[in-house]
Fold this sequence. Notes:
- By secondary structure, this protein is α+β, with helices and mostly antiparallel strands.
- Helix content is 23%, strand content 26%.
- It has 15 helices and 34 strands.
- It has a 7-stranded mixed β-sheet with strand order 6-10-4-17-14-15-16. Strands 12-20-19-18-13-34 form a 6-stranded mixed β-sheet. Strands 1-33-30-29-21 form a 5-stranded mixed β-sheet.
- α7 (335-344) packs parallel to α8 and α11 (512-524) runs parallel beside α12 (548-575).
- The longest helix is centred in the last third of the chain and has 28 residues, at 548-575.
- Residues 49-155 form the Aldehyde oxidase/xanthine dehydrogenase a/b hammerhead domain.
- InterPro entries: Ald_Oxase/Xan_DH_a/b, Ald_Oxase/Xan_DH_a/b_sf, Ald_Oxase/xanthine_DH-like, AldOxase/xan_DH_MoCoBD1, AldOxase/xan_DH_MoCoBD2, AldOxase/xan_DH_Mopterin-bd_sf.
Amino acid sequence: MxxxxxxxxxxDGAVTTAPVTSALAGHAxxxxxxxGVSLPAADAAAKTQGIYPYAADLWAEGLLWAAVLRSPxxxxxxxxxxTTEAARMPGVRAVVTHADVPGDTAHGRRIADRPVFAxxxxxxxxxxxxxxxxxxxxxxxxxAAAIAVEYEVLEPVTDPEQAFAAEPLHPDGNLIRHIPxxxxxxxxxxxxxxxxxxxxxxxxxxxxxxxxxxxxxxxDGGVEIYTASTDPHADRDLAAACFGLAPERVKVVVxxxxxxxxxxxxxxxxxPLGLLALRTGHxxxxxxxxxxxxxxxxxxxxxxxxxxxHADAEGKLVKVExxxxxxxxxxxxxxxxxxxxxxxxxxxxYVVPHAFVEGWAVRTNNPPSGHVRGEGAxxxxxxxxxxxxxxxxxxxxxxxxxxxxxxxxxxxxxxxGQTVTCPAPVAELLRAVRDEPLPALPQDDPDQDWLLPxxxxxxxxxxxxxxxxxxxxxxxxMLGAEGADEVSTAxxxxxxxxxxxxxxAVETGQGFTTLARQIxxxxxxxxxxxxxxxxxxxxxxxxxxRSRHTWVSGGAVERAARMVRTQLLQPLAAQFxxxxxxxTIADGKITSYDGVLSxxxxxxxxxxxxxxxxxxxxxxxxxxxxxxxxxxxVGLAFCAVRAVVDVDVELGxxxxxxxxxxxxxxxxxxxxxxxxxxxxxITQGVGAxxxxxxxxxxxxxxxxxxxxxxxxxxxDTPDIRIVRLVEERDVxxxxxxxxxxxxxxxxxxxxxxxxxxxxxGRPVNRxxxxxxxxxxxxx
Length: 779
């Protein structure tokens, strides 16, 4: 089933909804609740009114404030740490260093290679050295600054290519993972060969709400940590190991998450908090500054990519050769998983008979890299789409036509040897954006100066502006990969006419709590559904990443709700001599197919509470083998983007005029949220294409603030037209739904770069695009 939804941008970059002419629009009078309806978020009013409690708003009696001393060097040997002066300061209650960590001194979600506090070697700018608790935040910061650390500054390794030959930066070595993918015949060649070298910058999640948390000691010697965690059970287990406590003596309570794209997965802030609370016996709070936020959490992997594409004279791909080098920064974090995605999707959503890809992830003394939406897939998408543009130019072929000749479909093979069994309507997506009417050209009119690249105060001239149209096709995997045990647990309780969902899936802004309410409304016909706050007393549900919670946690909620439905209907069905399938629940009423039975849910419950707990676990996957082969992924999602840009070829300034999007979504569960997620993903991708790059100099982060790191604003956001959402349900996914928010992030930077190539004729092989890369020299 396919449908079309339109979204037209306004002059200030806001998005207005155009008429929707498909099944996505629902019926003329849609039901008030349930799946397929734009149910508003329960916390929307509180957030818009500014009264929603985030971690930075927390308070407790006897509260102390924490501050962390961080290394000013990207690489140094620690000769001594003297906390004497800091501990003497009035109001200081505790100072902790590596010597005060009672349990494991290193942590990591995948590899425990990151110290709680650096003890002998500093490996990146901003690494924690010590932490202070004091009765006032200014006192804490002054005390942290008073800690005397003697360093022997070492030469940093900041070029990932040099990491192979450099002295080991870590006891585990500099190489985190190497994947040599081999698929097909290495001797195969094409009549046409194009090569390219591509560089992708260090994008930061840049959350509007910086990291914050509160740790409260417990009478049993344990501690409770209140923070914006996206994986509370993993955070609890890491914290317990570092504190030398049993997991049941550490509790993580999830507070309001002000957005998350991987940056909330770093427990490096929570561990000092817990240690200080345990040491002082007082609640301790930490609210990171913007600089600390930039220095501490993981960023997108900067990546170097070398490509060689072979094709025949008709433009059919024959072979892809690639080398992919991910800069992991100082520690491993999720680099192994990001590399697997990059290598597996190195050829894109195209049929490639022969593929040979070498992928590496290495440690350097650069800032840490980790999980950021679309990791691995975004970097290779920019490179393989650059190659497709080069190939089209070499063949004198329309770029969209070249892509159409090579697109993947259901039943094709990935270069990993895995068969694409899910819907893969890539050709339909590309045709949809290609055939969408182009936006009008700006008029040479002073009233439309704001439409020029650089805005009304820019120095450019209208005669220097050229328009370009480019394309991007992208893909991502959903859930964890390579044998990850993806499982979630949920409980649904019904009392009277009210249902409650208990599930440790964290609401990070992706809309899970709204989805959970819709699922229960759909299954049980009850309008009033509440979702309980999340903490580690509940069964684990895993991290909030890669659209996991729509699939595994939503699936668990649905199963639990159906179990409650059966408990509710079975007595009635037996009483009337019919099966439960002949009974329906809607608007709080239970009716039979023939109208004989009609009662309310409350009357059927008769004062009883019904509840059920269920799990959802997708089919297993397997690790990639020594040649990069294996069924590593549960499911895939695809997207096509057409970018229209105006470029001032004298100044190199770029304005993204419009982004037309067609996406493979499986099933739209909440139309308003689906549109919002796509629009947000496109905007993040535009930032990666044009402005966002956390710059470093010899490993030192330059200007770690929101003036030095250029996020796109409303004025930078283009018109976003969602021209088609393909609802071809994935039969193995609960509700048939696919991931929505990550794949536009993956695809849109490649589309913008493609459009700038079309406008300038320049290669544009670096993201974000530098102005000099878009300048066309006369003659």
